[in-house]
Amino acid sequence: MKRLYFGTDGVRGNYSSELINEAFVARLVAAAVSWVATKNKGLSEPTVLIGRDTRSSGVILERAVIDGVVAAGGSPVPLGILPTPAVARAVRFMPADLGVVITASHNPAGDNGIKFFGPQGLKLSDADEIEIEGLLAESVERKSGHSAYSDNAVLDYIDTARKLLSANSLTGWRIVLDTANGATCRTSPIVLSELGADVVGLGNTPDGLNINDGVGSEHPEALAALVKKLGARIGIAHDGDGDRCILCDEQGAVLDGDEILTILAIDAIDRRVLAENTLVITVQSNLGVDAAVTARGGRVLRTNVGDRYVIERMRAVGATLGGESSGHIVCADISPTGDGLVAALRVIDVMQRTGKPLSVLRMGLQKFPQRTTALRVSERRDLAACINLQSAVAQLETSLGTGGRVLVRYSGTEAKLRLLVEGPTPEITDAGLAALEVAARNDLTVL
Q1: In terms of Cα–Cα distance, which of 190, 227, 7 is closest to 83?
Q2: Could you tell me which residues come within 8 angstroms of residue 445 by beta carbon, excluding any fewer than 6 positions away?
Q3: Start-end of H helices in 41-113
Q4: Residue 131: pLDDT above 70?
């Protein structure tokens, strides 16, 4: 059975669309509360924590979420603007029965969405989401009283993150921090400043409409330029809800999630503290990660794209480090989900212990030449029925052999076809990607 509404990471779309509107959100949340009550053998009045990012539509949708919780017999606890990982942590440690985050992550301000965290602060499985969809009512009665905001979650999150490094250990460090005009504007700067850093902010003036607008992990150009100009030790960029981390070294070079994961994995292997000697990544990550980690004596496991699939595999094998090239970094000994601030602090810890700048640490990963593109399509036609594309993939895989790989998939959050080619030389990857794009355009309506 297929999911109708959930994508790779919750439900997401343009605000006021058929998916993201007050009525549907109230129905969806009511179904989720009913689901968690059933899962917990008739749990009465489930406690539901509610966080959001800085989008203007979040204020309206927060009320719809509260209505949905109340309609299903739950007890809503709004947390206000808070990073996604802080909500996940709060579900685990407050504790609560369910977490709801109103966010569209790295998407533009016109979009919004809903992410759920079940007991223990874990993202829901595909099976869980199918069950919730099966509980959707035609409508819910929307009447709720006032729910007071709680600061407990943000205070706990800041205190926990601050303790990852020694007191005043960032004294003398200049750090450029891009918070994407999003949910981390009230948390990451506080933590870094209280550790002694001289924090220079970017994307730190949210107005409800400028989240991810030319800033954040999807747009690190301004971060890189400012790091280089100011002679900062490191640059840190989050996405709109704070579960991603992209870094910039002191020379202005940008590090993606693959480079961050490789730094953390190699350091943990060298210190013999990498749980199960295993790093979990997705099919999107560069083959160079496998080469770097296995050369050090570690093991790499791959999953489908989506940090929840990474987390599921990590839990299954007992690993505590995993993530995605997009910057979702999961340090499971600290956070039950991807956490951009935790990832940045962990890398800083490696820098301090080794005495090596980020420009040196990043050299642990030698990437295979890779080219990617994303084509916006009018509909998600079954890829198996795309004859030209299937033929192009088969030919390219045969020519690459073990010296590269091809990945063709639809985005889980947008109407886009994503194409990836890795190979031994840039020329081969360029030609391969061009061939795939031509084939895709012959099979699909590309906008």
Answers
A1: 190
A2: 377, 378, 379
A3: 57-71, 84-93
A4: yes
CA–CA dist 322, 337 (Å, integer): 10
Percent of the chain at pLDDT > 70 equals 99
User: Tens digits of per-residue pLDDT, 350-377?
Assistant: 999 999 999 999 999 999 999 999 999 9
Q: Please state, for a pLDDT cut of 90, what percent of the chain lies above it.
A: 89
Same domain, 401 and 274: no
| Of 305, 342, 304, nearest in space to 321 by CA | 342
Last residue of a domain, one of 201, 217, 251: 251
Both 216 and 297 in one domain: the answer is no
Place of tokens 């400012």: 226
Q: Pick from 152, 187, 206: which residue ends a domain?
A: 152
Which residues are designated catalytic? 105
Classified as helix, coil or strand, 408 is: strand
Q: How many domains does the chain have?
A: 4
CATH of the domain at 164: 3.40.120.10
Say if residue 80 is in the same domain as residue 191: no
Q: What is the rounded CA–CA span in Å between residue 52 and residue 77?
A: 12
Q: How far is CA 228 from CA 219, 221, 225, 238, 442, in A?
A: 16, 11, 5, 19, 44
Residue 347 forms part of a structural domain: no
- Domain encompassing residue 125: 11-152
Task: State the DSSP code for 10.
Answer: B
- The Cα 196–Cα 232 span in angstroms is 14
pTM score, whole prediction: 0.91
DSSP string, 86-106: HHHHHHHHTT-SEEEEE--TT
In a domain, 53, yes or no: yes
